[in-house]
Design goal:
- The protein has 365 residues and is an alpha/beta fold.
- Helices cover 46% and strands 16% of the residues.
- The strands form two sheets. Strands 3-2-1-4-7-6-10-5 form an eight-stranded mixed β-sheet. Strands 8-9 form a two-stranded antiparallel ribbon.
- A hairpin with a 5-residue loop joins β8 and β9.
- The relative contact order is 0.08.
């Protein structure tokens, strides 16, 4: 059985840290908490779980703080989590089993990160991160903001998921760090440029964000998953700016980096549906519905875009065409994935009535 050091950096996490640490009970052989300047009860909450609580002077550099936490580890493997991460009970059991059987030749284990779920428990956004690493390899964190763990060697893609359940965050922290660096004359790497654009978008500075996404894409040096994601985010910016032409062009731009993905097919389907070009919308939604959800993708993905969502929208499309049998068939396909969704249940009652000869109208979108 391997041994594990859990290494975390925290600040003002009194509400989430106990939940996180309770969810990983029995997994870590030591827990190392590095506090970067809390002013609440984070430190006292941490000490309920471990005596290994340290202070780190904040220098606007997340990688520096994480590397310091890693330097304190003494066990064979290092696990990292954020305070608003949790392991669901099934994933905790999988992790305990992994701890028993992991081949010591493995240098790193990647795990899914579930970023959001709908109220029915369907995953709406996920990606993959290297989560458990061999200490002796001395892997390092890179990047002052939106840092990443650089690993190589024998990497196992695990079936364990970490679920992110944010309560709150400092919404200005990251953008302030980026803008301090810009003011100091720093030239951003492609990765920093992409994440700075994300911060601008999240702060509603859509024109600036669009310009930065375009600069990132034109540079041609980004990671392919960031390139694809940038196209979607650029489309979001233009949607917010009510620029439908560039919104559509940005979605299509994603095809420069690979085959169409379900997320973009649904986006295109929605665009054409809004323009009342129903048959073109059907083409894109049917393409999305025929795709399999990515199981091990490293980029951000939305499984609902290849499961119930395109079928729900196909129901809407066929209803508009007056093809109620096809609308019902697709609504039933959506219900197979999401049986309690109120829109799907509404559609079912409405279409059963239609197919029985009623003249009522109005499928639910």
């Amino acid at each position: 059985m391997i041994t594990i050091s859990l290494c975390m950096i925290v600040k003002n996490e009194e509400d989430t840290l106990p939940r996180c640490l309770s969810s990983v009970a029995g997994i870590a052989d030591e827990i190392i908490i590095v506090d970067t300047g809390s002013t609440d009860r984070t430190e006292s909450e941490a000490k309920k779980f471990t005596d290994l609580v340290y202070r780190f002077e904040w220098i606007d550099d997340f990688a520096a703080a994480r590397n310091y936490a890693f330097s304190l580890a003494t066990q064979a493997y290092i696990l990292w989590l954020d305070a608003d991460d949790v392991l669901k009970p099934d994933d905790r059991l999988k992790f305990l089993e992994l701890k028993k059987r992991l081949d010591p030749s493995v240098d790193a284990v990647s795990m899914e990160l579930i970023l959001s779920e709908d109220r029915y428990g369907n995953v709406s956004a996920r990606l993959r991160r290297n989560r458990l690493v061999k200490r002796e390899r001395q892997f390092r964190w890179i990047g002052a903001v939106h840092e990443y763990l650089e690993v190589y060697g024998n990497i196992l893609n695990g079936d364990i998921a970490v679920t992110h359940r944010s309560v709150r965050h400092d919404s200005d922290r990251n953008i302030n760090i980026y803008e301090k660096r810009l003011a100091a004359g720093e030239r951003f790497s492609p990765r920093d440029l992409y994440y700075y654009a994300n911060e601008l978008k999240d702060h509603g500075r859509l024109k600036e964000a669009a310009a930065r996404y375009d600069e990132f894409l034109v540079g041609g040096l980004g990671w392919i998953e960031d390139n694809i994601a940038a196209c979607g985010k650029l489309a979001d910016c233009y949607h917010g700016l009510r620029d439908k032409k560039n919104e559509l062009a940005s979605a299509l731009r994603s095809f420069e980096y690979g085959a169409p993905r379900a997320e973009f097919c649904c986006r295109l389907g929605y665009s054409f549906l809004q323009a009342n070009d129903v048959r073109t919308a059907i083409f894109w939604y049917e393409l999305a519905a025929g795709m399999k959800p990515a199981s091990d993708g490293w980029g951000l993905s939305s499984p609902i875009c290849s499961t119930w969502l395109p079928h729900l929208q196909l129901c809407v499309c066929y209803d508009r065409l007056g093809d109620f049998e096809s609308a019902f068939r697709h609504n039933e396909a959506a219900r197979g994935y999401n049986p309690d969704h109120p829109g799907i249940l509404h559609n079912r009652n409405y279409l059963l009535h239609k197919l029985g000869g009623s003249t009522n109208s109005g499928g639910k979108e």
